[in-house]
Amino acid sequence: MLLRPNERTALFIDGASLHHAARNLGFEVDFRSLRGLFERETLFQRAFYYAAMPETDDYSPLKPLTDWLAYNGYHLVIKSAREFTDPSGRRRMKGNMDVELTVDLLEQAGRLDHAVIISGDSDQRRAVEAAQSRGTRVTVISSIRTTPPMIGDDLRRQADQFVDLSEIAPRFTRRPSEARPRQQQAPVRHPADLNSDEMND
Fold it and tell me: How many angstroms separate the CA atoms of 195 and 91, rounded?
């Protein structure tokens, strides 16, 4: 990944997309190392993290992660995930964060030299193009090594640089077996995990 020390850089993370890609590749993201990578190698501006939370009073396994991120330098963008029942009668959760990520990307583009987006959703292609038209270089991180690939072709072609998550994973991920011993609770999961056979739209 091409990072430049003189570039104003921001990170835009689609939480569900990163979670699915890392899980399919067999990694667990170390968010402290992820932020540290950009702080060391760029004129780092901000890290945005986008997540949909279930509309319920029940405990969400995503809560420990979002709490940690909020206290460790990440700007959280949260909205309620909608619960619905599919035609087969199974409960599903849906929470697409494309609009929120797009708005922040376009608001920041004029003040950035480099935007790094961790997502694979082709719906963001036009937003990437608009950011580029304002002079912002855009790198997209996702994966084509999963089945199916996590990134759409349109977004991959539009980006100035595409980086496969598997190629840079050692810089900010760890194997699940390397998780901190004190983490005895259930692993932090995104609501989309409730639907193992359905990717986030």
Answer: 8
